[in-house]
Design goal:
By secondary structure, this protein is α+β, with helices and mostly antiparallel strands. The chain contains three helices and seven strands. The strands form two sheets. It has a five-stranded mixed β-sheet with strand order 2-1-5-6-7. A two-stranded antiparallel sheet has the order 3-4. Helix 2 packs parallel to helix 3. The chain is globular, with a radius of gyration of 13 Å.
Length: 117
């Protein structure tokens, strides 16, 4: 577990936003990403019959659709383990392989930080 007081305030913000999305929408995961201008994009899991996206994939798609050119950081709040390969690939596609992904539990405590690539 990572001491949240050691996190950059902007990283704490995206963890909080991801946690809020998860709780507000009663979905398995909440995610938030921060683009190169500091804008944030927040999403929950999408589970339709015809479309299934993780919260992190949805947040990246929202950033792309809004004109983001790169990502500074990503956060996902989930009970699951490490981000999937598809999640890491989505973040790396827009942010590059060094973009950090913060993995937090439902209580908002950051369990790990891993590069996208």
């Amino acid at each position: 577990m990572i001491d949240s007081s050691a996190l950059d305030p902007e990283d704490r913000k995206i963890v909080t936003l991801a946690r809020s999305a998860r709780a507000r929408n009663s979905v398995p995961e909440g995610a938030a990403v921060r683009d190169e201008t500091g804008r944030t994009y927040v999403a929950g899991t999408v589970a339709l019959d015809s479309l299934k996206l993780s919260a992190l994939q949805t947040a990246v798609a929202m950033a792309v659709a809004s004109g983001a050119r790169s990502l500074e950081a990503a956060a996902v709040v989930t009970e699951a383990g490490a981000p999937s390969g598809a999640d890491r690939a989505a973040v790396a596609d827009l942010g590059g392989p060094a973009t950090p992904i913060l993995l937090a539990g439902p209580d908002g405590s950051v369990r790990s930080t891993t590069p996208a690539g």
